[in-house]
Amino acid sequence: MAKLHTNHTNSELYFVTENTGKFREAYEVLSKYGITLRQLSVKRIEIQSENLEEIAKFSAQQLIKQYNLELIVEDAGLFIEALNGFPGPFSSYVYKTIGVAGILKLMEGKTNRAAQFKSVVCYCSPKSKPAIFTGIVKGAISKEPRGLRGFGFDPIFIPEGSDKTFAEMSVEEKNSFSHRAKAFKAFTEYYLKQILKSR
Amino acid sequence: MAKLHTNHTNSELYFVTENTGKFREAYEVLSKYGITLRQLSVKRIEIQSENLEEIAKFSAQQLIKQYNLELIVEDAGLFIEALNGFPGPFSSYVYKTIGVAGILKLMEGKTNRAAQFKSVVCYCSPKSKPAIFTGIVKGAISKEPRGLRGFGFDPIFIPEGSDKTFAEMSVEEKNSFSHRAKAFKAFTEYYLKQILKSR
């Protein structure tokens, strides 16, 4: 992959996130295309909505008012079928309060363990309207937590096509399955074709 | 109380909520002071925050940009000690997904059943800055749901000083304990003194 590491541009592209785990995953995807992603670790507004697209778009539009930058925000969530989509867009709050143990407790006795992680990336620049990219990975909730890597609910999510949880995988392996990598790949292809080519 | 039912003003005061149960409780409080509250049932923006004051204030400020009205918004949540404050500001989403049964499942085996309901009212008008009023009621999570009145987590919340859950009480009885009635009373006293007197 080394020969792809050409820097296509001098422009600076920021991923607005306080979550270093998320940043690392996105950085890994974009670096394969020769793009260096930068982290802007500031608080941003997230609205309460069951629609990740709406959350990401609102957030990006607010940030563009504050920062004169090309930027990306991402919103993601774990949607568990037997729990009517819970914890969904509120996954990080749920992780901080009831945690992995709380989710496993809620899943006790449930035979349907189907779940999906969804990621929505919103790109915005001072010159362009927001553009949205989505990635989904289907999988199942494990019976107990396994693995120490990743973050959030990674220790209890097993993607289809693997026996490992996300927390048992390296960033590279997780990215071969993950919702976030899919959304960032879709974004990157758009960015190379639509944005960088037009400069 | 009948003699208090004088209409102090011709101005129109709107409570922006889609929740009829909330509206009924607030209406009951304000009508005792002779103020007729009106309902404006429209969607409003709620940000994701652990701070109800921040959520209510942001929401009121957005609404004032859209509507040239005197208005109130309210944000409330159930904070359960043994669950690190969960479900907190996300109570209505949690109610819709895992529901009362989910909360009771998470509370299985917990000896600390302490919880509180908190309500934050934000008043805003085209002429004045947002003003915030808070009400809290302490209580406990019951072992099983009881009662059919109220809404949300009312069937599993027993306020201090009662043996009944909120869902076993009439609006008037619930208001003698409730977080929402306290916040609306505080608002009404301010409104009568600071706003109506100055007209």
By secondary-structure content and strand pairing, the structural class of chain A works out as: alpha/beta
CATH architecture heading of chain A: Alpha-Beta Complex
Residues in helix, % of chain A: 25-40%
User: Average pLDDT across residues of chain A?
Assistant: 92
State the low-pLDDT regions of chain A, or none: 1-9
In total, the number of strands of chain A is: 7
**CATH topological fold name of chain A:** Maf protein
How many domains in all of chain A?
Answer: 1
CATH class of chain A: Alpha Beta
Q: Give the assembly state of these chains.
A: homodimer
Largest sheet of chain A: 7 strands, mixed
Q: Biggest interface between protein chains, with counts per chain? A: A-B, 24 and 24 residues
Give the overall shape of chain A, derived from the CA principal axes: globular
Strand content of chain A: 25-35%
Keywords:
dITP/XTP pyrophosphatase (chains A, B), XTP diphosphatase activity (chains A, B), alpha/beta, Maf protein, homodimer, 199 residues, seven-stranded mixed sheet
Question: Would you write up a description of this structure?
Answer:
- The structure is a homodimer of 199-residue chains.
- By secondary structure, chain A is of the alpha/beta class.
- In chain A, strands 1, 2, 3, 4, 5, 6 and 7 form a seven-stranded mixed β-sheet that branches.
- In chain A, helix 1 (20-31) crosses helix 6 (179-196).
- Chain A has one domain (2-196): Maf protein.
- Chain A has helices spanning 20-31, 52-66, 91-97, 99-107, 171-175, 179-196, and strands at residues 13-16, 37-40, 70-80, 87-88, 114-125, 128-141, 157-159.
- The radius of gyration of chain A is 17 Å and the shape is globular.
- Chains A and B meet through strand 4, helix 3 and helix 4 of A and strand 4, helix 3 and helix 4 of B.
- Chains A, B: It is an enzyme of class 3 (hydrolase).
- Chains A, B: Belongs to the HAM1 NTPase family.
- Chains A, B: GO terms for molecular function: dITP diphosphatase activity; ITP diphosphatase activity; metal ion binding; nucleotide binding; ribonucleoside triphosphate phosphatase activity; XTP diphosphatase activity.
